[in-house]
Amino acid sequence: xxxxxxxxxxxxxxxxxxxxxxxxxxxxxxxxxxxxxxxxxxxxxxxxxxxxxxxxxxxxxxxxxxxxxxxxxxxxxxxxxxxxxxxxxxxxxxxxxxxxxxxxxxxxxxxxxxxxxxxxxxxxxxxxxxxxxxxxxxxxxxxxxxxxxxxxxxxxxxxxx
Length: 161
Hints:
This protein is α+β, with helices and mostly antiparallel strands. Helices cover 31% and strands 25% of the residues. The strands form 2 sheets. Strands 1, 2, 4, 5 and 6 form a 5-stranded mixed sheet that branches. Strands 3-8-7 form a 3-stranded antiparallel sheet.
């Protein structure tokens, strides 16, 4: 079992759940076995430089949140590996997606855009889903602008072919 899977199993146990996440799942485990309350565990090895880790596909998140009563939670885990094995340093506890501030997120180019953490986690418990989605719209507009510039550069590169 990979380290990230071991962490998912440990964190799921802490929440009386079983980690069953697959690459196609929106979360790594479900709260109270309710299909609309998935938890996505994001692990960070503090011994490595982890630049802008991927959080979730922007398109996938939008499609999930557009469905009534769907929720999504994240748990951010810092860990290290020592001679004794895996050591979980800290975890953030359950954070509803809408409480993650866009001050620490960005959308970058991968497929339809992927949400990445570009700064240290910032939680805003007063931000509701509508506020989160407004922040996402601003981030997506920045992403689209960057992509349009990139397309123009490519167009100029190939114009004489």
